[in-house]
Amino acid sequence: MTAAVATAPRKRAAAGSARAKRENKAAAAPDSAPKAPPANSAAGKLAKLGLRRPEDFLLHLPLRFEDETTVTPIADLSPGEHQQVEGVITDSEVKYKPRRQLVLALRDDAGDSISLRFLNFYGSQVQAWGIGTRIRARGEVRGGFWGCEMVHPGMKRVGEDTALPTTLTPVYPASAGVPQGLIRKGVDRALMHYADSGQPDYLPDAWRERLKLPTLAASLRLLHHPSAEVSASSLEGRTHPAWQRIKFDELLAQQLSLKRAVAARRIKNAPRLTDRAGKDALTAQLIARLPFKLTGAQARVWRETASDLAQPYPMHRLLQGDVGSGKTIVAALACLHAIDNGFQAALMAPTEILAEQHFRKIADLIAPLGVPVAWLTGSLKTKAKREAQAAVASGAARLVIGTHALIQEKVEFERLGLAVIDEQHRFGVGQRLELRTKSAQATGMEPHILAMSATPIPRTLAMTYYADLDVSVIDEMPPGRTPIVTKVFAMEKKDEVVERVRQWASEGGGGQVYWVVPLVEESEMLELQNALDAHAQLSEELAPIPVGLVHGRLTPAEKQAVMDEFVAGRLRVLVATTVIEVGVDVPAASLMVIEHAERFGLAQLHQLRGRVGRGAAESVCVLLYASPLSPTAKERLKVMRETTDGFEIARRDLQLRGPGEFLGSRQSGLALLRFADLEEDQAWVAAAQDCATDLLAHDPHAVQECLRWWMGGREHFLKA
Q1: What's the rounded Cα separation, in Å, for the pair 451 and 231?
Q2: Are 499 and 559 in contact (CB under 8 A)?
Q3: What confidence tier does 571 reach under pLDDT thresholds 50, 70, 90?
Q4: Per DSSP, what are the bridge partners of residue 217?
Q5: Most exposed of 62, 209, 508, 614 (fewest Cβ within 10 Å)?
Q6: pLDDT tens by residue, 690-715
Q7: How far apart are CA 400 and CA 363, in angstroms?
């Protein structure tokens, strides 16, 4: 009783102290972290567009321009043209046939009239545009039985002596509830503030003169308020020198950020994983046991990786190679190298089917070497999951393979020295950062990171978005791989394709078959139904040939049971969704049919096609499409028919989709290029790299100012 009474005051005092701290913190908040403006206020709406600082407004560049510098007499108007007229409203009427609309009659000083029609309007506008009001109206001129008219023109009240603008009127990217006038006022305030501040240009004169670029101030003034004499095509095509300056600066800021991320990594600690000499090394044992010889490309990439692992700072290496080029062997060697040095290794894959593929393949390779391997995914039973987590935490498991389950809070490593992330573009920035912290918590050192991708990244993309990574490329396929022939047919030929599948899958016919069902991005259930329907139809049409089915709704055990039957050859045809897109390796499967191939992206089609051609038999991929095809879909199928080179496909994919979609999860947090174009502006990428190197070495103030303008505090995402 006494003890309870004695402790109560201390609890109250602690609570009071905590409350005082909170109050002090709240009192200090306005100075340290200004409150966000209310969402419905003008500032709140602008903030949703990313417009908070003066620099944000200055870099919010117009989509297009309207020419309000001239007024055309109504008698000289040309139907189909966007033109501006000025005059006095002589009639204003709300009509109700055929629908409610406001119709104004505008007469210019020459006495000619035009109708202005508004289908959506407010009562306040009827009042504002009353008879006798002088206005300027700009819009598309339409011809009609009763004369010319404009529908929903832009309107502006003017006086008889109101001067015409001397520059083009900008039209900015906006969202609902944010009028152009509000953005224009913000931009003009920012321009005035920038001019009055006397801020020097962060790009040194020597670099500006070398690259023949205008000043930032002149570029921004021109792009926000170009005179009517400026070439419209140079503005729309972004070829004007002012646009070139903006593109260069954007690329420069990106290169500065990436190079600083690399420099920051170089001062962090990581375990030095050095070679163990002699044939007793696990890596040497594995190479000796392989039933094949490493290709020249695999050996080169392994040397590059081993060299990085021996450094005292974290490796960030991207290992890219086409489908089936042999990346897994390099990953296995890297893991054994870490284990040889007394550390653990982890391999994380985005899906259970791919993680299990790695587990089976790598476990088979290294089990004879006596290396304990743990398997950890979200679908494990509670007891099995606890046992795996305990083995990882104690160090009993030297290699752990799994999915996102590896980065859960309950997973602790004893000594994580290397993390391998497969199909790394499928993981978000936060997830990759989380895996890095697992090692730092236990050892005070960051793990080395080996990221793998079977989606080759074009050189220009690697130079910009992945410049913070060292890139290794396996550009040589293992011997014995047969080229894949790709054929494209309309859906009307489906019956003929099914008959060819029958011949292919029958005894003595040559091999096994994948039948991939249409992709339905909006609905997993619709995609499942596609798979069920295709399985039922093919089972009936191909009987008695056994047909299997695998899709995302099956449990991992059910998926694996079907795949085991397919690998064993007891299933001759496998109907599948895109769960087989990566990782599945069945050498006897030599024919793939993809239904509604026009619904898939190039990278996905290439990944799917890579499931065949993994053995010695001739392999064929059939793409079935439904007419009519969009121009983009037509181009995708053409690319697939013309080449099997993953790097060429990636380059063409970048042209079709642009970097935003191409990068997938990489864009989570990393601002994509808004103005520069990787295809058109390759020369600026190289120039930005050189300039960034020079500024980092000799002009830290310029670096800081450039990043303040462009990055706005987003640099931390580059750590991943």
Answers
A1: 46
A2: no
A3: very high
A4: none
A5: 508
A6: 999 999 999 999 999 999 999 875 55
A7: 10
Across the chain, mean pLDDT equals: 82
C-alpha span between 247 and 111 (Å, rounded)? 49
pLDDT at residue number 408: 75
Q: Which amino acid is at 518?
A: P
305 and 404 co-located in one domain: yes
Q: State how far the Cα of 331 lies from the Cα of 326, in Å rounded to an integer.
A: 9
Both tokens assigned to 247: 């593109």
For the chain, the C-alpha Rg in angstroms (whole number) is: 32
Strand blocks (E) in 108-195: 113-118, 134-140, 149-151, 154-157, 169-171
**Which residues lie closer than 8 Å to 288 by C-beta, 6 or more apart?**
279
Neighbours of 483 (CB within 10 A): 10
Token output for 431: 């997830």
Can you give the residue range of the structural domain that contains 129? 70-164
In terms of pTM, does the model score above 0.70? no
The CA-to-CA distance between both ends of the chain, in Å, stands at 55
Q: Look at the chain and report how many structural domains it folds into.
A: 3
Last residue of a domain, one of 440, 474, 508: 474
Q: How many CB atoms lie within 10 A of CB 204?
A: 16
> Which of the listed residues 627, 643, 659 is the one where a domain comes to its end?
643
Helix (H) or strand (E) holding 459: helix 459-464
Sign of the CA dihedral 105, 108, 111, 113?
A: negative
Rounded Cα distance, 258 and 462, in Å: 12
Sign of CA dihedral 531, 532, 537, 540: positive
Residue 181 lies in a domain: no
